[in-house]
Amino acid sequence: MLSDQPNLSSGLGLIDLVGRKLVHAGEYALLCWLWIRALRPSVGGRAALALALAVTLAYAVGDEYHQTFVDGRSGSPLDVVIDGLGAAVGGAWAQRRGRERAGAARGR
Predict the structure, then answer these.
(1) Which of 57, 73, 55, 75 is nearest to 65 (CA)?
(2) Residue 48 belongs to what domain range?
(3) Alpha helices (H) in the chain, listed in sequence order
(4) Is the pLDDT of residue 71 over 90?
(5) What is the domain count for the chain?
(6) 23-26 long-range contacts, Cβ below 8 Å, gap at least 24?
(7) Is there a domain that residue 4 lies in?
(8) Nearest Cα to Cα of residue 31 among 64, 5, 55
(9) pTM for the whole thing?
């Protein structure tokens, strides 16, 4: 829904811009983490990470492409990079949690 809005600016300038980018990166971190959780039982840890990153990046590219059709918006390769960095953080966090849980299960 927000991707289809012509203008998301709150009028706060740089604070608004940086805030939106951080929130966007966080959303893509969460999206990647959720994909990993969904994929891990069927394909395993590393494959789940690779697939989750690929799907999340594809979604980021698709979102930016969609914005090229919205009046007042444009697609940005930099936004895909920011989304990808967020996805990488989410993926790293999910992998770390997976290793911690596996270690705890072995220690029982």
Answers:
(1) 75
(2) 19-107
(3) 14-43, 45-67, 77-107
(4) no
(5) 1
(6) 24/79, 24/82, 24/83, 24/86, 25/82, 25/83, 25/85, 25/86, 25/89, 26/86
(7) no
(8) 55
(9) 0.80
